[in-house]
Structures are given as structure tokens and as C-alpha cells.
Give the backbone structure.
Amino acid sequence: MGRLAWAQLRFARTRAIALLIGLLLATTAFTVLTAASRTAQLRTVGTVSAHFVPAYDILVRPKGARTKLETQTGTVQPNFLSGIYGGITTNQWHQIAAIPGVSVAAPVALVGYSLLVSPMTFPLPTADLSRPGRQLYEATTTWISEGGTSRVTQPPSFTYITPKRLGVITASDDTTERLPGGKRVNICPVGAYPPGTDPFGVEAQSSCGAWSKVNGYGPGRGPSPANPGYDVSWVVPVLIAAVDPVAEAKLDGLNRAVFSGRYLSEDASDVPFSGEPLTAFPVLASSDSGTDEYAVTKLAALATPASPPSMTVRWMSQHATASGRVIATVRTTAQQAYQALLRNMAAKRGPYASVDAYWTVGPTAYRHGAARALIAQLVHNPLSVWYTGGISDVSVDNADNQYRKVVVHAPANNSFSGNFAVPRLVGTFNPAKVRAFDPLSEVPLGLYQPTAAVPANAASRKALHGSDLLPNQNLGGYVSQPADLITSLSALPALQNAGYYGIHVDAGDPISVIRVRVAGVTGPNPVSLERIREVAQQIEVRTHLTVDIVAGSSPSPTTIDLPAGKFGQPALTLSEGWVKKGVAVAILSAIDKNSLVLFVLILVVCVLFVANSASAAIRARRRELGVLACLGWTRPRLFTAVLGELAAIGLAAGLLGAAAALPLSSALGLHASPGRAALAVPIAVAVALIAGLAPAWLAATAQPVASVRPPVLAVRRARQPGGITALAAVNVLRTPGRALVGAISLAVGITALTILTALTFAFRGVLVGSLLGNAVAVQVRGVDYIAVIATVTLGVLAVADVVFLNIRERAAELATIRAFGWPETALSRLVITEATIIGLTGSLTGAALGLAAAATFAGQLPATLYLIAAAAITAGVLVTTASALLPSRGLRHLPAAHLLAEE
């Protein structure tokens, strides 16, 4: 039996070589791809480990803080701090800090936004003031933000210049001008805002001033400058947050970012109080306001008034559209106004830095839109939120779209029963110098840097001039600014004066979030992960707060749609880096799954290839096996002989594949150990045996007499093919099993090619879902493409093998057709058309399966996916058609006379 197998391998070399090449390709590809996968795995583990340690490991929020959207998507909004004002007690913080394994427990207590006025004064042109008589000027400011798309013009303010003496009415503080005869004209009346006053209208937004060439601003108005001026009044929203200085320094090195003054101390008593009704508290100020806005103010000289104007609200409303000669234009920025505010705070001067009231804003709500985008929902904030006994100084930006609920904390009905807080600047820090954590493993920090809302399409990039959407003076705007003033937890009582700031203030649970770092975490290893899990479990059990493990998180690009604004901002499509939790762990647990699937596909295609070749070999030896059965060979012996031949071919292919894999892997820069290469031998033998089971069983169970008789086809109704294509289709259907094997083999490869190409081009990282996942995908995608190419190659070889076998089995038939006068070109077209039919069937099936799988995984079906499927079909058909060229060239070498003689 062994000699029979050797004789078959020796004298039937063509079939043996074909089987050997198929198995050799499969085993070599398996070994090389396994080495590539191992190399990619080592790189991936290194990448994930390098980006694993974030700012902190566990995020603790008040009970119920996890939103429905967060639960559904597993992501946390980058500005997650918005809307969380308290909810955690100091006792709970101390409980967390005392848990074994906790290295740092850094609390953040968001207080809210204070609207601090920062007037920037510019002198009136001296040359214009030299004119005799009275002058009247109008200053009109346009506020420009959101990449220049939002422009809102504030109601104008007026400045009156007179050669007469000015006075002040002590009771009302109104400015007056004395006329000849002793009559007084009220120039700038100061009146209280009646209920229902529009905070964005002329009455609240306009102002008036007067200056005398004789006595300046008049009695009681301070020193008389040599030259009068006009103001550009910025209303700077500053977010106040309280931290524990020691814990914050350990967590992110805030103390090392201080470049002027000093760092915060734990005790707030080192800042002297100013006495009733003021309570000072220390603040560490950011050097950057985090606001992107500028103002263009135009000063116009109006017509010379014949008499002193009484600049009442009605008068200012009537003159708001008065045309004049523009004599000066100034441009100011939010950063300039913020720096001026810091100078005032450092000098402890002006009422502009006192926290007369503060505002808290809620989170943004979303609804799902098309193409997996989230649509930010608008909210309505009543005008009463800008009332603090009277009307607070408020920017006209707040009349734009509002996405967050705004709540005011201010004295009710002007009834004060305590001190109001005044920030005292102790130092300034650079937010860019706060410890920068890896951008691929960023966790929701949201304290010192503004959220990056990046334009996500061409229209949005054009509208924003390529820049990000950044905060402006709109408290309820979409993008909220980072914390500007940092104070200590011990200073919170100054801001928690319920008697002054109203019943909304609760000093019992002031902490908004706690960021926890676990000791001994070195990477995404089982020990570190277990330490984090154990601490998180202890926190939840002891405090019953909302606890999330954020170690191994990574920003996940999320598409946000914003509706058009009221002041020119068009509808925008933005991309934000929402933080996806547990990305690193998910990557490590799934790193080999995709490559494993592709390896299995390679082996499946190889089994189909070998099974098809073995079946053809059995059919070619039909008579020989029948004779052996007639001579007394038992079925087990026949089964063992056929299977032994295939095992020998598999052993040879395995040895050659193992020998070729080591130098090939080394040339490609891959790590392939001898032990991994040696696995090719048993794999090749196993593939050969599995593929040969069915053909060997059919050979052993065939009837001996039927095997030695010539095959006779059953009588059927004759049909005349209508051309070469029709005849090719008939020929393919004559051996449906073989054609199906070839089509399935190719379909497997085309399916993998369609899915992988869709991942790369159609979704551009959507399926990976995070920046860290995208970075890892770049490393492993090369291995995936090599595996897919190997799978497609085996599929094409399977189709070529089908064509070759058809030519061999139908050699006599083809010789007869040639004898009838068919040229060789027609015979070649026939053979190539058969391969094209099989290739088209397999490519269509594979592309359809790949299309469905990619669409199912991603939840969408972009137009690019159809183009990718069409390209995969075209590639599959072209390659399989080309694979038939070589077998078709063998038609000219057919021994026609010999074959016809045998028939």
C-alpha cells in the first residue's frame, strides 16, 4: 500500500504538485501571518501599555449622575462637569481617601460662573475735542465670536462733551448741566429698571456719560482727566471651582504651573477679610480666559447738539440709528479684557471683581439624528435669570441660542443677610503647563482646558475658517469654558452664604466629582486591573455614589449637529472627543480575534482547495481503484491508501512551509520562532487529512463493477447552447459541486476584502471607535491585509484548479470540438468564460456578504461602501479571469489525435 502511494506521487506528478503548492501556500501563509500577528500583538501591547496610565483611574460622581446617553454609549461627555454642582459630602471624600490602595483622591467643587465687568477705556480723539461748542459721540460695539460666524451689535452708548460746568444731583446721582439763568438740564438720568425690562435692550445695554471742558466729570465723579474717554465694557464669565490644593498638586501638578504669585494653601484664612459686607477668598487664576471672542467698537461724531440733550432711554432709543462720522475704530479681545480683570483683582480695586451673584448651568441634552450624529437640543432660559435684584450686567451674547439651563444665585428682593464674596488673587497659573496626559488615553477632566469642538465636514470647516468652535460670553452656549478661578475647599464658606446668595446654595455636599488614582497601577496587566476594580468596588460599597473605572479610556470621536444661531452662525457639524471607557482592556481582549478569523478563513479555503483536488484525483483514478477493489482490496485499505497519499503530500508541504517561513519572516522583519514554524507541519498534515476524508470515503465505497465500466450519461432532452457564453454556463453546471467549491473559496476571500476595505475607507475608524483603537488598528491592519490577500489568492487558485480539472477531464470533448473546426481562440474564450462565471458568482456572493456584515457592524450604509463592494467584485472577476489564462494556453498542447483514438 505504501509503494502504491509512492508510485502515485511519483508518476502522477501534476496532481501531486498542484496539491503540494496549495498546501505549501496555506502553511507558509499561516506561519508568516502567525508571526506577523505575534509581532503586531507585542507592538499593540506596548502601545496600549504606554497609553494606559491616565490622569486618574476612577471617576466618582454623585448618585444618579450617569445619563441615559452615557449608559447607552459607554462614553462620558468631555464637559461632563457641566451641571454637577455638589452632591458629594466632605465625609464621603474622606472615606474614599482612607480606602487602602487609594493614592490620590482629588475633589472638585464647582461653584458656578460669576459675571465680572472689565471696562476697557479709550480716549476720545484730541483733535476732534478741539472743536468749540458742544459735541456728541456714539460708541457702537459689535461682538464677534464662533469663528467669526456670530456677530451681534450691542445698543450704542453716548458721550456728551460741553463747554459748560457739570453738576450732580446728590439724591439721584444724575448728571446735570447748568444753563444761563440757573436752569439745570438732566443730562444722564440714572433710573431703576422697572420689572420686565429686556436685559438685552437699550435700557439695560446702553449707557451715557458727560464731560465738561471746565470741570471734567463734575463733583463727586472722581478726578477730572485731561481727556475724556469711552468704554468697551466686557462682561467676562469666569468659572469658579474649588479643589484640595494638596490632592490637586499630586494629581496633575497644578502647583508647578504657577508662574506668578504663589500656590493655594489649604487654609483660606491667609487672605485678610475686608470686613462687612465683604468676605475675601483666595483664588489662583488661569492665565487664559478660554474664551474666543473679539469686539469691534466704532466711535462716531454725531451732529452738534444745539442744547444739552437729556439722554433718557427714550432719547437713546431714538438716536440709536443716528448716522455720524466715524472718527475711531478699536478692536479688543476677550483675553485683553480678562487680563485687565486680573490686574484689577491683583490691585484689589474696583467693584468689578466682586461676586455679587453667580450662575450655574446644566448639561446639554441630545437626540439621535441621521448618520449616528447627536443633535444638541435648545433650551429656553427666562429673562429673570439675569435679574439680581435689578438687572445684572450681561452680555448680549446670551440672547443667542441656549443649550444649557441657567440658574441664578443672587439676593432675593435685595434682602441681604450676609456678606458677598470677593476673590483675592494669590497667583496665576498657565493651563498649558498643567500636567499634560497622553491624548490617546485622555479621561474626562474638563477643568483647565476648553472642550475641543472640531468642524466635522467641509461646510463647517469653511464657516469656522478651519478653527475649532470655542466658548464666548454666552453662558448657555454649547461649548462651556474651563475653570478660570481656582480656590480651595476651605474657602467655600465665602461662596456658600445662603443668606446672601439665596436658598439654592447647599453647603452640606459641595463636591461635584472626585478623581481617584490607585496605587501600584503599572499598565493593563491583570494585577493592576484587579487593584483598580477592588478600589472601585470599595468606593461604591462605602459611599453608594456613581463610580466609573476610566483607566484605559480613550477619546471617541462623536458627531454633534448644532442648529443655526440667531446672530449668523450657520448650522454646524462638529466632532467632539467623548471619552469611551475601557478601550484599552477591550483592545487587549480582542487583539487576536480579527486575525484568528482570517487564519480560519485561510484554512477553510485551503481545505476546499485540497478537497477539490483530491476529488479530481479520485475521479481520474476511478478505474484503477475499481480494479484494486476487484482484486480484493478492502474498503478500509482503499480508504487508507488514498488518505495516505494526501497525508504524504501534506507532510511534504508542511516541511517546506516550515523551512520557508523562517527566512521569509526574517526578511519581513517579523518574529517567527522555530517552534511556531514547526507548527506548520502538523497543520499541513491535518488540513490534508480533513480535506481528503470525503474523497477517500467516496473512493472506498464505490462499486467495483461500476468503477471499471465507462461512465454513461443518462438520456436527457438535448439543448442547443446559444453561443460560447451559454456553452460555458452549461459546462459549469455539469460539475456543480466543483464549481461551487471554487466560488465559495473565492467568496470567502472577497468577503474578508470587502469588510477590511470598508473598515479602512468607508467608516474611517467608526468601528474602532476611539483614538487609541485607531492607533492600534494602524499597527494590526497590515497583518489583516496580508491575511486577506492570502485568502483571495487561495480562492483564485481554487478557481484556476477547477478550470484546470475541467480541461483535463474534458480533454477528449475539447479535442472533438477542435476537430469540428473550432479555432484555439474560441476554445480559450470558452475556458476563460467558465472561469469568469465562477469568479463572478463568488465575487458577487462575497461582496454581498461583506456589505451586509460591514453595515451590520457599523449601523450605517454609506455610499462609499457600495463603491468598495463594486471594486471588490471587479477585482475578483479580473483576477479569476486572469487565472484562467494559463490553463487555456494548455489547450494548444492537447494530443487531439491520441485522445480521439482513445474515444
About this structure: Confidence is low (pLDDT under 50) at residues 218-223, 763-780. Residues 1-51+583-709 form one domain. The radius of gyration is 41 Å.
